Amino acid sequence: MASTSSNVENLHPQILKQVMKELRSLSCDPPEGIKILSNDEDITDIQATIEGPAGTPYEGGLFRVKLVLGKDFPASPPKGFFSTKIFHPNVASNGEICVNTLKKDWKPDLGVKHILLTIKCLLIVPNPESALNEEAGKLLLERYDDYSKRAQWWTDIHAKTSHCTKMESMEKGESVEATQGIKRASDKALDKKKKDKKRALKRL
User: Keyword Kinase: yes or no (predicted)?
Assistant: First the structure.
């Protein structure tokens, strides 16, 4: 995984200011299916979530990604990583992302938004020619159905709230509701007893 050391002190203040401005803008007006997770302590460690695009094996998943700005940014591209495990030709076992935008096609004026949109596009159209996961690349080219099933399976396991957790929370909710119902019924019964007792005393 990427180095966790901060590069804040290595970047020019003007670059930091520019990055902060873009992150604020992305937080206020995020691209569809992308959400920035702000880290005020270290803005060189940019994290976001990307919703799995509809019609892909990643649909329904929520994938956490991380961009690490190096000391030469923006002359050099940031490094991109998936923090959420994903079966994809262009994502290595340590989460590193291989996409031309972060390699040979990098331009210093490309911003964070462009990178995140490119990563989202990679979920729609993988590039088996620059595969970091050879098995996924081979399956994509030779047996797409098997690739799709495997990618969906990983999405279900790693990128979705498990069905069990949902069921547990529903059951917990129902049990809380039931407990509250029982409490209300017993409160009513107690009130009725108190009222009956008062009436009986008045008659005496």
Answer: no
